[in-house]
Specification:
CATH class of the largest domain in chain C: Alpha Beta
CATH architecture of the largest domain in chain A: Orthogonal Bundle
Order of helices and strands of chain A: HHHHHHHHHHH
Strand content of chain C: 15-25%
Largest sheet of chain A: none
Chains: A mainly alpha (263), B mainly alpha (279), C alpha/beta (259)
Number of helices of chain A: 11
CATH class of the largest domain in chain A: Mainly Alpha
Strand order of the largest sheet of chain C: 6-7-8-3-9-10
CATH superfamily of the largest domain in chain C: P-loop containing nucleotide triphosphate hydrolases
Number of domains of chain C: 2
Structural class of chain A: mainly alpha
Helix content of chain A: over 70%
Radius of gyration of chain A: 24 Å
Number of domains of chain A: 2
Mean pLDDT of chain A: 89
CATH topology of the largest domain in chain A: MetI-like fold
CATH topology of the largest domain in chain C: Rossmann fold
Oligomer: heterotrimer
Number of strands of chain C: 10
Strand content of chain A: under 5%
Low-confidence stretches of chain C: none
Distance between the termini of chain A: 47 Å
Radius of gyration of chain C: 19 Å
Order of helices and strands of chain C: EEEHEEHEHHHHEHEHEEH
CATH architecture of the largest domain in chain C: 3-Layer(aba) Sandwich
């Protein structure tokens, strides 16, 4: 009984400490960023009112539907293409980086460092950097998303392969199979579902990210939104938000369905 | 005859040879999916409007720029102390939105975790969360900026919204992992809703939640950098934007990028550590 | 002639941990030998040195009269095709069919391209099917391996090894993850292969009673050294305690060893 009370006391102290830390983070961060809770709360009604008002498109917005849809299609195609090409490159790269294939520990380390570099340089930096050389072009967004996706997927694939393929590759090695045979008969069949699941996730993520990149590189749906927004044509901007939501939810639904089938 | 008996169980494929593969819907589905994705990608690349870009020159320029950015970084506008303060601002934007998102998500996850919540309420909450998650962070920031103006308030609210939606999903999954027997036993002993939460749910899923929350903080930090650049939210992201799109100072961009990358790598290391401890 | 011979073999990990310390023994063709010892004693390392899944630090290993330690990639591949291996966790490609996993035993003898695409001749497929039938797996031929039970998976592992037509089969804790009934089936199959096809078997076990029942010779390993090498009759309780570094009271295995 005494022990139980002890546990409860410890638990209470833990909760108190967690609450205190959270409060401390809040006050410190609010001070530094000049965030005011009152302004924050005051902004809510305005934002929701905006959504409620502008999700109903006006005539001008309706006349822009074809343009919006074509840009949205472009964004979707871009996200799929970027993810697929990054996935192919990342898969080849991750074969060099896994411990499973035992290619060479130094190469493996180098691969992981390169992947970390591409993953951690923010996509906005890539976007601005590529703006200098590619200008307002769809390739700017393509490459900016490609670099970060490549870095992220390389790490994800290395982890997947190390987790699910290392045991069967050991067995195939023991039968005398060579590297390429191990890849095609061992690594690909065993890790493919994991890899596909990551690709689906990245397609979703990239659709959202491409909006941001579009704003910086003046391309795609992000640019369209930015333009309507700055011209204060909110119903058109609202329509983009609405379509975006539908697109992302549909893609999420499809991905979840595919995941269930392939597992 | 003897041979026929021995071979019961062996199957031939359409070309008359002995079949080797398993009949499995999922293998067909994966092949189909890969084919479709590759087809979409090829079509995409063929139909994009490239506006007659000089690819050779663009690539050469890119390499030259990458070289300048990453091999010759130099801070010329503002001292290192100024920049580090801006980094701290970005850090705090991320922290604030994580804290808000966490608190909101905790209560919402209680409303939509299958094993404790009412089904109808859960469905409503889940739909709202799906909607919130589907809108890109930058759009949330800009929507809030209409009423709050561009700045830290809009940035924090925008970032909060997305983290809230993400964490609600994660927390709900954590709560759903809890053995239903534990909750039933408590309910049977007469424990109320809040008692169940403090006695069963918090103790068993807290460490998991902490790990995910920290991971979300990592994402919020990078998002805060992006918001600074794309939506004028302040912090080091804004410095990056000014260096890149206003002063065209590649070397300054390089220095700022290195600072961001170092911060992200440190956070990633910390996050991995927390994650392995939580398991 | 000895099929496998270890000469003063040592293995050091990360320049510090000594996993094997001056190991010497040899296997005659057709022998069924068990290696017993506590976990971490170096049993797995010994097996993985035989086909160089792990490279040794010192000493020499001879397989079929040839020095394994000095081989290039191609020669090593030839040795591996002649050595079957069975694992504690079966190490199958779970998403492929039972048939495909058995046919993997032929990969080492195939060209890169044929192996990569998984193209096998009709004779090879028939051979695989016959092996499966011999292991009572004919009905599972077209199932995916992740649909099988542990005992069935291990039989697929054995089928893959037999498919190689090996001279030597290395078994790394083949029954450590199985229930007693499946364990018996697996050990009986291994013993059967050994007698029928005259394939040499080197088996890591941690159940002393199983080792005593199935093998003609037992090697006891502890701390990376061989402390016993002889027939089961010679293994007395004192030696068992020496191998497991235990006292009379804390050994769980209830062994009836020769007095």
């Amino acid at each position: 009984m005494k022990k139980k009370e002890n546990i409860l006391a410890v638990r209470k102290v833990t909760y108190a400490v967690v609450a205190a830390v959270i409060a401390l983070i809040y006050f410190g961060a609010a001070y530094i960023t000049e965030f005011k809770m009152s302004e924050g709360i005051a902004a809510f009604p305005g934002a929701f009112l905006w959504i409620a008002e502008n999700l109903m498109p006006d005539e001008q917005a309706i006349s822009r539907i074809p343009k919006i849809l074509s840009k949205l299609l472009e964004t979707t195609l871009l996200s799929v293409a970027v993810t697929v090409f990054a996935a192919v490159c990342a898969f080849l790269f991750s074969l060099l980086g896994t411990r499973t294939t035992k290619i060479n520990p130094i190469i493996g380390k180098a691969v992981r460092i390169v992947a970390a570099f591409f993953r951690n340089v923010p996509d906005v930096v890539w976007a601005m950097l590529l703006m200098f050389s590619f200008g307002q072009n769809i390739l700017t967004g393509f490459l900016a998303l490609f670099f970060t996706t490549f870095g992220l997927l390389t790490r994800a694939f290395i982890e997947t392969i190390d987790e699910v393929s290392s045991s069967c590759v050991e067995a195939l090695n023991a039968t005398g199979a060579n590297f390429i045979q191990c890849v095609f008969q061992g690594i690909i069949p065993s890790s493919l579902t994991g890899i596909v699941s990551w690709v689906l996730y990245m397609i979703e993520t990239n659709i959202r990210s491409s909006t941001l990149i579009g704003m910086l590189t003046a391309t795609g749906i992000g640019y369209l939104f930015d333009m309507y927004y700055k011209m204060l044509q909110f119903p058109s901007a609202g329509l983009i938000v609405l379509f975006m939501v539908i697109l992302v939810i549909v893609i999420e639904g499809i991905s979840n369905k595919i995941r269930r089938v392939i597992m | 005859m003897d041979m026929a008996i021995q071979l019961t169980g062996i199957e031939k494929s359409r070309n008359g040879k002995i079949r080797v593969r398993a009949k499995s819907k999922s293998n067909t589905a994966i092949k189909l999916l890969i084919f479709v994705l590759l087809a979409i990608s090829v079509i995409a690349l063929l139909t994009f409007d490239y506006k007659d870009i000089d690819l050779g020159k663009a690539i050469a320029d890119t390499f030259a720029n990458i070289k300048t950015v990453f091999l010759a970084p130099k801070l010329s506008r503002g001292t290192l102390a100024d920049i580090l303060y801006q980094l701290l601002v970005t850090f705090c934007l991320g922290a604030l939105s994580t804290v808000f998102g966490m608190i909101l998500a905790f209560f919402c996850s209680l409303l939509c975790a299958q094993n404790i919540a009412d089904k109808r309420i859960a469905n409503v909450v889940k739909s709202i969360v799906a909607f919130v998650r589907a809108v890109p962070t930058v759009l949330w920031v800009l929507i809030f900026a209409i009423s709050a103006g561009l700045g830290s308030v809009a940035a924090v609210l925008g970032l909060t919204f997305h983290s809230f939606a993400y964490l609600t999903k994660v927390y709900a999954e954590a709560i759903e992992e809890i053995d239903s027997g534990t909750i039933e036993a408590l309910r049977a002993s007469g424990a109320g809703f809040w008692q169940i939460i403090t006695q069963a749910i918090l103790p068993s899923s807290l460490s998991y939640m902490v790990a995910w929350t920290f991971m979300r903080f990592e994402i919020n930090f990078t998002n805060a950098v992006a918001m600074g650049a794309a939506a004028g939210a302040g912090g080091i992201g804004f410095n990056l934007f000014m260096a890149g799109s206003f002063y065209f100072d590649l070397r300054e961009m390089g220095a700022l990028t290195y600072i961001v990358v170092i911060a992200v790598v440190l956070l990633e290391m910390l996050s991995t550590k927390i994650k392995s401890k939580a398991k | 002639m000895a099929i496998l011979k270890f000469e003063n073999v040592s293995k050091v990990y990360d320049n510090t941990t000594k996993a094997l310390n001056d190991i010497s023994f040899s296997l005659e063709e057709g022998e069924f030998v068990s290696i017993i010892g506590p976990s971490g004693a170096g049993k797995s390392t010994i097996l993985r040195c035989c086909n160089r899944l792990i490279d040794i630090t010192e000493g020499k290993i001879w397989f079929d009269g040839k020095d394994v330690t000095a081989m290039n990639k191609k020669e090593l591949r030839a040795v591996r095709t002649k050595t079957g291996m069975i694992f504690q966790h079966y190490n199958l490609v779970e998403r492929l069919s039972v048939m495909e996993n058995v046919l993997h035993g032929k990969l080492g003898q195939k060209s890169t391209l044929a192996g990569m695409a998984g193209i096998y001749s009709e004779e090879e497929k028939l051979e695989a099917f016959n092996i499966l039938r011999g292991l009572d797996l004919a009905d599972q031929t077209y199932k995916r391996c992740d649909e099988l039970s542990g005992g069935q998976k291990q039989r697929v592992g054995i089928a893959r090894a037999i498919m190689q037509q090996p001279k030597l089969i290395l078994c790394d804790e083949p029954i450590a993850s199985l229930d007693p009934k499946s364990s018996k089936v697996i050990m009986d199959h291994l013993s059967n292969i050994n007698k029928r096809d005259n394939i040499t078997c080197l088996v890591n076990l941690h159940q002393v009673d199983v080792a005593m029942k199935y093998s003609k010779r037992i090697i006891g390993v502890t701390g990376g050294r061989i402390v016993f090498d002889g027939p089961p009759e010679k293994l007395d309780i004192k030696t068992v305690h020496k191998i497991y570094q235990s006292n009379d009271s804390d050994l769980i295995t209830d062994v009836k060893v020769g007095a």
